[in-house]
Amino acid sequence: MKKIGLSMFAAAAIIFASCGGSNSNTSTTGEQSVAEAQGDTYAVDMNTSKINWKAFHKGGFAPRWGTLSLTSGELSVDGSNVTAGEFTIDMKSLKVDSASVTEADKKSSDLENHLKNPDFFDVEKFATAAFKITKVSDLDATTAKDAIEGANKTVSGNLTLLDSTLNITFPAKVAVDGDKVSVDAKFTVNRADWGIKFGTSEGDPAEWMISKDIEIGIHVDAAKK
Q1: I need a surface site. Which of 20, 66, 124, 139 has the fewest CB within 10 A?
Q2: 64 in a structural domain
Q3: Which of 195, 193, 141, 209 is nearest to 27 (CA)?
Q4: Which residues have C-beta within 8 Å of that of residue 91, sequence separation ≥ 6?
Q5: Phi and psi (nearest 5°) for 11?
Q6: Cα(194)–Cα(162) distance, rounded to whole angstroms?
Q7: How many angstroms separate the CA atoms of 225 and 221, rounded?
Q8: What is the crossing angle of helices 108-116 and 6-13, to 10°?
Q9: How far are the Cα atoms of 56, 176, 192, 224 from residue 68, in angstroms, in the given order?
């Protein structure tokens, strides 16, 4: 495969995948049993819910950032507790913010296209990704590190990306207010856990110039059906 310029790959490192990584606020394990829905069903608002991503070259250089969109989602809420939930992510919606591409010879559209091709997310073959909650528990504030402000829960769920499914765990802020619920989280993930490797080996410059860490931000709004 042709390699398009290493500065472009910083972003390519990117995205969403999710988990493990070197950040202590996120962990990755094998696929787990999905949580049983209990309580009322809340439908996710596709207009206000969003996923943000950010990635870098190694050393923190040339950051790239952008967004992904949800195509469907719902949460189960029992009293004041989220008990389960499922979300589908549209990988074809992947966007690179043009403000993150400052080099005169680079275009955000070129990077978007490269991230969508078989070198990375192969969105024609894998048009969607999925996240299914396996557990929600109270957050131990003494062990939570680099969590979003106001984080009060620990969320675990199976993330399916490309043809792999792994379970990820991260701190989140969950707020249930009557007929509405919101979930916010930020964490760092490791793209290599899902086999997202552009280089042919660890020594390939196309691989080692790109940080494996990806910063993910999530905001979800949902309302009772």
Answers
A1: 124
A2: yes
A3: 193
A4: 68, 116, 121, 123, 126, 127, 128, 129
A5: -70, -35
A6: 8
A7: 13
A8: 60
A9: 17, 24, 19, 24
DSSP one-letter code for 15: S
CATH of the domain at 170: 2.40.128.110
What's the domain count of the chain?
A: 1
Query: Containing domain of residue 143, as a range?
Result: 27-224
DSSP state of 14: -
The answer to the question of residue 4 being in a domain is: no
CA 115 to chain centre: 15
Between CA 131 and CA 89 the distance in angstroms is 8
Per-range mean pLDDT, top range of 51-60, 94-103, 136-145, 159-168 = 159-168
Alpha-carbon distance 96 to 106, whole Å? Answer: 12
Q: Tens digits of per-residue pLDDT, 32-89?
A: 999 999 999 999 999 999 999 988 766 667 788 899 999 999 999 999 999 999 999 9
Q: What is the DSSP string of 50-114?
A: EEEEEEEETTS-S-EEEEEEEEEEEEEEETTEEEEEEEEEEEEEEEE-GGG---TT--HHHHHHH
**Bridge pairing between strands 153-161 and 164-177:** antiparallel
Inter-residue contact 78 to 38 (CB < 8 Å): yes
Evaluate whether residue 49 is within a structural domain: yes
- Taking Cα atoms as reference points, which of 17, 109, 21, 11 lies closest to residue 56? 11
